[in-house]
Amino acid sequence: MTPRISIILLNYNTAPLTLTALDSLCEQLRAPEQAEIIVVDNASEIEDLEQLRRGLAGRANPAVRLVCSRLNTGFGGGHMFGAQFARGEYLVFSNSDVRFERDSPGLLVDFLAQHPDAGLAGAPDADASGRVGKAFHHPLSLAGELFGPTLLGLLARGRYPSRESLPAEPIEVGSVGGALLACRAADFAAVGGFDSALFLYYEEKDLSFRLRRQLGKATWLVPEARFTHLHAQSTGSSFITAHELRLSQLYVVRKNLGWWAWLILWASQLLQSAIKAPFRGKHRRLLACYLRGASLSLSMRYRQALRLDRDVVSAAPEVS
Questions:
Q1: Residues 94, 103: Cα–Cα separation, whole Å
Q2: Does residue 193 contact residue 83 with C-beta atoms inside 8 Å?
Q3: What is the pTM of this model?
Q4: Tell me, what's the pLDDT at 62?
Q5: Confidence of residue 310 (pLDDT cuts 50, 70, 90)
């Protein structure tokens, strides 16, 4: 039977987290017969991949499939790889560092089914202590990238609502976090899916912008579909990821808002790093990045090795 929902769960050297996320997901799904789960290994170390294989085989869930990439293509590329094996009418994309305490994928899909003008649906996340973070982003704009959400809210609160409080009802937003989001497979395909040029960050903001511009479909936050997110467990926190964030930000601005917007943002960030460079090594390194043009050619994507210690996936075998 063709599934209604394809849930794509991305693993990169996080097998224990992925298996725990999978267990919580399987426990919470209200209609498991309508869902398929595709676990994507994004070129993890062989030890992590083997741990993942053993864990999946031990669970023996016929609705769970494992597909393996020989190359780490990042967040968007990994999910695009998984989407090639998806058969569902709706796609749900999930990080490995999440815990499901309710059927959040089903709630997001139900919202999309009831709102044909919605292109993307996301959920607010809580950390391990239960504290809900900033659950959405404002629409992609030069002002937003230059000034940030706090200043935008002070300057134009009516246009840019506060991200500090969780709304009681679904609201239309600029974009949602990428740890858990859902869309129709047809809409995802119509706009080309995630931009695989991006290695980390801004994938969901870029996708939301294109769904709005190309299909006229908005992004919504669905408060009921809350989940726990163990922030930075799947990517870590380092200068490298901060560097990747800036590269992705400038790329998405140039692509969607044009060269003049890119130039203004680049010059602003260059100036900020130049002012701070004498005091912090991080900004000296960022300054060097900006002086080199801050293009995606500097991305850590191009420091990833091709993993030849695993089979190339030509089909999506079921784990049994």
A1: 13
A2: yes
A3: 0.91
A4: 64
A5: confident
